[in-house]
Amino acid sequence: TSHSLLQARFQPELVRCCRVAVWRGETGAELRRFGNVSESYYKTSQLYRRPHHSYHLYRHYFLTLYCQWPPVLRNSNPTMSNKEEKPEESQSNWKDFIYNPRSGEFIGRTASSWALIFLFYLVFYGFLAGMFSLTMWVMLQTLDDYTPKYRDRVSNPGLVIRPKSMDIMFNRTDPAKYREYVKHLDSFLQQYNDSVQEENELCDEGKYFDQDAEPVKKVCPFKRSLLRQCSGLSDETFGYSEGRPCILVKMNRIIGLKPRGEPYINCTAKRQDALQILYFPNEAKFDKMYFPYYGKKAHPNYVQPLVAVKLLLTKEDYNQEIAVECKVEGSDLRNNDERDKFLGRVNFRVKVME
């Protein structure tokens, strides 16, 4: 009778738990699996096991047990229930992290917190940008638009040649072998065309062309026709078709350079027999009127003076490599620095085949 009343008045989960606790005669120690049961409930459970007690005593015990440990009695299998709720809880936690409608947080921060953090970084990076701009402005005030502030590291110019190659090798009977050399020389000499150079200022030979007070610097002309046999005007192949190639030698630009004396180019072959060489202009010198140079911005149309070197090779010189060295001499410009092979000099090799 008591058992039927329990089934009618209590939930199935409660009846199932109570059956384990009472009708199977569980002891107080075994009841610990339902929760932290006090000692008085142990004693009560022993009394309620006896058949002569009334339904009211059972009801009192079951209600007390049900209210004391609701998670245990209301869920007959808590382990399985937790496993089923985990995916739903993780999805809810993820959504709350993105936006929590209860606290109004977005990715863990409220609107005011986000505003403060953005304001902090705005002020911080704004300060860094301002400090960087200020230091750059102070540094730029020390620079000149036309002249470098420090020019003590390069006081002597180097020599370079055109065509731009240290090994000039070709077959004089095959135009395809020397076409690139000829094309490069012709392209380089376009700025020296007589029609272009006639627009420049006529200068006094043998004198420096000082223009310190002039805002716009003038340029002394150097006409392509001065190179004569190596100008490409009378011989479009610059002597390559006949096995007597022309090499153009020039000095690098240095702002404010005024070489003393009369600098000129002297080329020699590194062999026992002397090599016949022609120079154009005939003196092979760099006239003082092309100095000083005032920089690319102040002197935009400036052209460097050139010396053309024509190697008069013979048939005995063909099919062998000839090393040639050209130096600038007749002035205070250095040409014997062992640490810099191009300071005031240049070395190249020529090999003509047939």
UniProtKB/TrEMBL annotation:
Topology of the protein relative to the lipid bilayer: Single-pass type II membrane protein
Transmembrane annotation, as ranges: 114-140
MF GO annotations: ATPase activator activity
GO biological processes: intracellular potassium ion homeostasis; intracellular sodium ion homeostasis; potassium ion import across plasma membrane; sodium ion export across plasma membrane
Annotated family: Belongs to the X(+)/potassium ATPases subunit beta family.
UniProt keyword Ribonucleoprotein, yes or no: no
Keyword Cell division: no
Subcellular location: Cell membrane; Membrane
This protein's UniProt keywords: Cell membrane, Disulfide bond, Glycoprotein, Ion transport, Membrane, Potassium, Potassium transport, Signal-anchor, Sodium, Sodium transport, Sodium/potassium transport, Transmembrane, Transmembrane helix, Transport
Name of the molecule in the record: Sodium/potassium-transporting ATPase subunit beta
Native species: Albula goreensis
PROSITE patterns: ATPASE_NA_K_BETA_1 (PS00390)
InterPro entries listed in its UniProt record: Na/K_ATPase_sub_beta, Na/K_ATPase_sub_beta_sf
Any Gene Ontology CC annotation: sodium:potassium-exchanging ATPase complex
Coiled coil: none
